[in-house]
Design a protein that fits this description.
- With 196 residues, this protein is mainly alpha-helical.
- It has two domains: 99 residues, Rossmann fold, CATH 3.40.50; 76 residues, no CATH class.
- The protein is built from nine helices and five strands, in the order E-E-H-E-H-E-H-E-H-H-H-H-H-H.
- The strands form two sheets. A three-stranded parallel sheet has the order 3-4-5. A two-stranded antiparallel ribbon has the order 1-2.
- A hairpin with a 2-residue loop joins strand 1 and strand 2.
Length: 196
């Protein structure tokens, strides 16, 4: 199973379609799969489904139930060999949904503008938690690129910080403070930093 994460550019997700499209094509060409399960609703993937099917791969489109309009392209559904919508109870074991009540509760607690100090504190807190569970190899890999934080760790750092600070999109100064807080704790941990 592969989870394909693209990149965010100007607030829009980019690059995931091409990555998802490439996977079944490569695996089909190599004869590595005979069946692919696709969890998506994006019509842009329809051509990839057709191409994989042309190479003998059966494509099962997996859906998530919704109370609103369909969350999957009708053209994509028609193209798939099979369309399976898994019950909400199945997904509940793996995901939580934001409910209107939870959203209203969050809105009822206004959050002031994030400050550089709050961003630095969030970076420090994340670093402390990360160091507590990091292996020696993880730490060596981190320090090899210092002061750059590896992408996977940086993404987790920003996502975690946004739970307390709010969106950091287009907030480069706050992200800088967040990362500075992270490196400060790594330095305080007694681990020699590359710059020292």
């Amino acid at each position: 199973m592969k989870v394909r994460l693209g990149r965010i550019h100007s607030g829009q997700q980019k690059g995931v379609d091409a990555l998802i499209y490439r996977d079944p094509m490569t695996l089909a060409r190599e004869g590595a799969i005979s069946r692919a399960y696709l969890v998506s609703g994006d019509e842009d993937l329809r051509e990839g489904v057709v191409a994989a099917q042309d190479m003998g791969v059966q494509v099962i489109l997996v859906g998530i139930p919704t109370s609103q309009r369909s969350n999957q392209s009708a053209a994509l559904v028609r193209e798939a060999d099979e369309h399976v919508v898994l019950a909400r109870e199945y997904w509940n074991a793996y995901f939580t949904a934001s409910t209107p009540a939870a959203t209203a509760g969050a809105a009822a607690t206004p959050r002031g503008p994030a400050t550089p100090e709050a961003a630095r504190a969030a970076g420090r807190a994340f670093a402390a938690a990360w160091l507590a569970s990091a292996s020696a190899e993880d730490l060596t890999a981190l320090l090899a690129d210092e002061p750059k934080i590896p992408g996977e760790i940086d993404l987790k750092l920003v996502i975690e910080a946004e739970t307390s600070l709010g969106s950091l999109r287009d907030q480069q100064a706050l992200k800088h403070e967040l990362r500075a807080g992270f490196w400060a704790v790594v330095g305080e941990s007694g681990t020699p930093l590359a710059a020292e």
